[in-house]
């Protein structure tokens, strides 16, 4: 995410601050309707045992297996009791009455014995709920949770299907950034849709385990009116009439999914080594951004040279009605209304978001406490990119990072202990970038980039944390950097 973080200036060292923004299953979608209030259901006297699952080879979704952990920063979102292996979302959007109709089929691996299935979900009207193909009574949506009575057993996968309809509603972003916007599925005046959902917000349009440690596979089909397009994260999987399909065969955290619906035009391009790229823009609105989008191959080449092959089969960018930007997987969601359009700054932000596809998308944090692990790398790499263009010295960069680090630690605290009310504020960008600069200085460029490349290439499609990163650094370099890393993450003032 590039929300409201400090940037190096185009002509260093004059810095600027530019707002930006941030075992298995299948699914189905449903009829449309009403006002979004949940349909009352009779509550059974006791939970219904999940019927014996049909003969399904859940190994087909094994790549979506995760080790979910509870998120201490936002404990109301997500659960460690379920591992979603696969989301199959069949959606339909009617802009005339702003109604979303959906059928979500989830392949779930329970991680504990339980008497219910509980997922994050906004209060849509429920049209059907079934477990292992059998209708289930008593399901309800309350306090932004879908609760389905069903006895489940540890490591015995089940299939949950939920049909629903209603009007999307957003959720507040827990931050004081200058570019704060509501999270989740947003409806514009003309009936278009777009979403950014970090640290949460996927639950505003489908039932989700909405926390970073549960990565899953996706199949998405979105039906829209004639003349409209639908864009989601993942690899384009074809179009039938006005139904657009996307598939993710690399696991994805819920915050990295995206959805945009509107009257878009598409530009097909090619990146390094024949990588298919797609740029989606709104005619008459986004043309000024196209020259920057078309520089994507050079951004990816810069990153591949340092960190190895792009980690996904396709890439691209979709422009939405936002002032921010997000590293949504394989399809960056980029704001089309920056406060003041500066092509150089916009391109730095695009480079930052592409860097996240290595640091954050392919290798994700287990909890939001370790957001620094995403943003520190993407920010430091962005500074290196700007340095390659503007030629400022390592000493100038060191001075800038230390000055910013001192100011931000004093105001927001150390990056290793972020506060829930201050999500993705500047300390988790600049302070860990300063730490990586120290690591780079200690190792030299050759060994530092070898470390970064090994990290993202050997840990692909995993969730990581501070402890695993430190262990990796020490093993890869043969040196003990535990004190350096912990000091930069925990100190109340800038380390000497």
Automatic annotation (TrEMBL):
Its EC number is 3.4.11.2. Its cofactor is Zn(2+). Residues 39-54 have a biased composition (Pro residues). One of its GO terms (molecular function) is alanyl aminopeptidase activity. Residues 85-256 form the Aminopeptidase N-like N-terminal domain. Residues 295-488 form the Peptidase M1 membrane alanine aminopeptidase domain. InterPro entries: Aminopeptidase_N-like_N, Aminopeptidase_N-like_N_sf, Peptidase_M1, Peptidase_M1_aminopeptidases, Peptidase_M1_dom, Peptidase_M4/M1_CTD_sf. The keyword Phosphoprotein does not apply. Keywords: Hydrolase, Metal-binding, Metalloprotease, Protease, Zinc. It catalyses: Release of an N-terminal amino acid, Xaa-|-Yaa- from a peptide, amide or arylamide. Xaa is preferably Ala, but may be most amino acids including Pro (slow action). When a terminal hydrophobic residue is followed by a prolyl residue, the two may be released as an intact Xaa-Pro dipeptide. Residues 33-55 are annotated as: Disordered. The keyword Zinc applies. GO terms for biological process: proteolysis. Belongs to the peptidase M1 family. This is Aminopeptidase N. The lineage of its organism: Bacteria, Bacillati, Actinomycetota, Actinomycetes, Micromonosporales.
């Amino acid at each position: 995410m590039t929300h409201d973080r400090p940037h190096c200036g185009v002509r260093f060292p004059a810095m600027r601050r530019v707002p930006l923004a941030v075992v298995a299953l299948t699914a189905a979608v449903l009829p449309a309707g009403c006002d979004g209030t949940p349909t009352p259901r009779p509550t059974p006297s006791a939970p219904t045992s999940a019927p014996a699952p049909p003969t399904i080879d859940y190994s087909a979704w094994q790549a979506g297996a995760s080790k979910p952990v509870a998120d201490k920063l936002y404990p109301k979102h997500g659960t460690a009791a379920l591992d979603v292996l696969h989301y199959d979302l069949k959606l339909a959007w009617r802009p005339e009455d702003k109604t979303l109709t959906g059928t979500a089929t989830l392949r779930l691996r329970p991680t504990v014995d339980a008497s219910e299935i509980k997922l994050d979900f906004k209060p849509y009207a429920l049209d059907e709920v079934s477990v292992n193909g059998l209708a289930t009574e008593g399901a309800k949506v309350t306090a932004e949770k879908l609760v389905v009575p069903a006895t489940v057993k540890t490591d015995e996968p089940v299939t949950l299907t939920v049909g629903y309809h209603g009007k999307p509603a957003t959720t507040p972003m827990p931050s004081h950034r200058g570019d704060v916007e509501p999270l989740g599925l947003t409806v514009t005046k003309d009936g278009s849709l777009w979403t950014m959902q970090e640290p949460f917000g996927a639950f505003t349009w489908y039932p989700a385990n909405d926390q970073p440690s549960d990565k899953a596979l996706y199949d998405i089909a979105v039906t829209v009116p004639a003349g409209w397009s639908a864009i989601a994260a993942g690899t384009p999987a074809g179009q039938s009439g006005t139904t657009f399909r996307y598939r993710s065969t690399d696991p994805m955290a819920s915050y990295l999914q995206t959805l945009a619906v509107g009257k878009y035009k598409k530009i097909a391009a090619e990146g390094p080594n024949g990588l298919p790229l797609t740029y989606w823009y709104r005619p008459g609105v986004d043309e000024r951004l196209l020259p920057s989008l078309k520089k994507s191959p050079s951004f990816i080449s810069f990153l591949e040279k340092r960190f190895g092959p792009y980690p996904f089969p396709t890439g691209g960018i979709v422009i939405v009605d936002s002032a921010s930007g997000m590293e949504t997987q394989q399809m960056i969601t980029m704001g089309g209304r920056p406060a003041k359009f500066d092509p150089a700054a916009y391109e730095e932000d695009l480079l930052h978001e592409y860097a996240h596809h290595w640091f954050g998308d392919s290798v994700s944090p287990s909890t939001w406490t370790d957001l620094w692990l995403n943003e520190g790398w993407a920010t430091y790499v962005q500074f290196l990119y700007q340095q390659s263009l503007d030629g400022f010295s390592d000493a100038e960069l060191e001075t800038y990072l230390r000055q910013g680090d001192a100011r931000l630690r004093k105001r927001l605290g150390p990056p290793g202990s972020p506060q829930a009310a201050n999500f993705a504020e500047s300390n988790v960008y600049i302070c860990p970038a300063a730490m990586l600069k120290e690591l780079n200085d200690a190792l030299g460029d050759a060994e530092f980039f070898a470390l970064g490349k090994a990290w993202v290439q050997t840990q692909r499609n995993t969730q990581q944390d501070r402890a695993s990163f430190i262990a990796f650094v020490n093993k890869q370099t043969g040196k003990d950097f535990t004190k350096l890393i912990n000091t930069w993450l925990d100190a109340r003032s800038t380390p000497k």
